[in-house]
Amino acid sequence: MLENYGFVKQFVDMMSEGFIFIDDQGIIQFYNKKAKEIFGLTEDDGIGHPAGQLEKGDIVILGITGVQKDDGGMGREDFEKIGIKNDHIAKRDAILGIGTYHDDTEGICKIQKGDYDHLELKQKFLDHWIEIKIDQVKKVVWIRVDEKSFPLPFKKDIAHMVCLCRTTGKVKFYQTRGYTAKGESVKELLMRTPYGAKRVGRDFDVVGKSIFDIHQDDNQMIKSFVHVARGGKERYVDQLTEINGYTTMCTINPLNDQTGRVGAVLKVEDVSEVKQIMRERDEALSKLSQAQKQLKQEQGIEGFKNIHGSSDAITHVKKLAYKASQSSSTVLITGESGTGKTILAKEIHDAGIYASEPFVQVNCGGIPESLIESELFGYEEGAFTGAKKQGKQGMFTLAKSGTLFLDEIGELPLMLQSKLLEVLQSKSFYPIGGNKKIHFSGRVIVATNRNLENEISKGKFREDLFYRINVFPIDIPPLRERKEDLYAIVSHLLPELRKRVGCEAETISPEAMRKIMAYDWPGNVRELENRLEHSLHFMDGKTLFSKHIMMETSKTSNSSVFDPVNSNAIGFNLKKAVQEAEKAAIQQALKRTNNQHKEAWELLGIKKTAFYDKLKRYNL
């Protein structure tokens, strides 16, 4: 219409406000430079790429701040196009994902439900080092591929995407601001919609396109703009509104000539002051979100009711466990025997996103090697001699979309380590004798008391399996390193053990507690529980005294003993320390000789009179 008025275009491009002119059919005639800057339709950075579309095998990298918020309406079937098969993906979830387009390769994803400040995924995928970050504080999504970085700022939500050519390994597409106007949302691209070329320094051409091709057709301001262009009488002056996710100040004016209405003009202002207010508001909301997150984490830690103690060491374990419970990543729990690895695994399951699904436990060291494969993966009818007629479901099938806990993973035979690795990578498996693939949508938690790195060096554990399970490691410290938790653990155990034994024990004496604190507990919580239960069998009344507690003095710590009741520690009083050691030695001698006094004083190397004097002195 005004295409010959070159001076008009030059003048409009000099304006400090955005200026958009459409004809009475809603077709764009002018769209000045400032408007393109406001709506992200300029190509002034990046590396550029030619036009094209996704092809089979292309590597797709995603950083989505909220599913179905600004991604074109992604559903689970869309994620499956790049090998991401996860039944827990839901609307508004943040997702970091890597996969191959319409390929059999299993995709990788990290899901965050609820509020968060930062989300990050680092992964080597098909010989490429890939890093994805969402920073909700700075409002930017970063995708880094090898040495190339693709940042994309956002205000509310965004769906960032980078694609690599499978054959050349080169970047063939990357998302930039204004992708909604360009028809390049993630969902559209995954439907093989062609994308345009990006040329550094060249603007996106919009003249001749429908205004609805550039801005959402459900936006009230844009709908009113078109209505005015067609003869409508609405008038908008300096109205604050949101277009394509950008906050703007808009004014609509009709454009007439001697024949009548020929179109309309939309003036768009970059509201810097409003943006500043919004930034300050966002910072305040971010701080509030951080406080809520901290409160939620503290409440989450409180939820681990079967992990007792408040030492720094065990509090750190609880924090890690809570974070693990909110993710779908594989968890590796390490620690000495008796530290409570099984209890922690169950607590992670109960506190997390899989709580409503089954928790299935397998002790890899407690099943004969000839049976463990069928126990894990099940078998079909007639799979081998002795197989049940109806076949059998394996533990992976029983866990369904819940949690499978593989205890003592270090005991798993090498042959099965290979199969387990394949299952963890593909999230699917075949039962023995079966030809139908079974998909596993749950999460796996593994535990071991072994040093798996040492097992790798001995050739007893696969290195690639170690890296696959070591996604979220949690190490439970031994009891000797957190003795300040002993009082809380004993207080928890006593009521349960009292019911089990059938005694009246309600309290433990300070002297008995000092004795417990002086011991190193090489068997950890399990040994403590067994020792207390044994002691309750030899007591009368409601108080557990030190004389009832039997333990090897050779395993007693050389360090000074903390007294939870008395401000003086035995370890700082030589006389009391000697008396305690002497008393413990006599108790052990009586225990070993089955209370035969003569054998006991001979074992101790003292005379009869001295022996009975000490029995009287220590009330034995």
UniProtKB/TrEMBL annotation:
Sorted UniProt keywords: ATP-binding, Coiled coil, Nucleotide-binding, Transcription, Transcription regulation
Any Pfam family matching the protein: Sigma54_activat
Domain Sigma-54 factor interaction: from-to ranges: 307-537
Keyword Isomerase: no
Domain of life: Bacteria
GO BP field: regulation of DNA-templated transcription
Residue ranges of domain PAS in the record: 4-48
InterPro entries from the UniProt entry: AAA+_ATPase, AAA_lid_NorR, Homeodomain-like_sf, HTH_Fis, P-loop_NTPase, PAS, PAS-like_dom_sf, Sigma_54_int
Coiled coil segments of this chain: 274-301
Gene Ontology MF terms: ATP binding; sequence-specific DNA binding
Full protein name: PAS domain S-box-containing protein
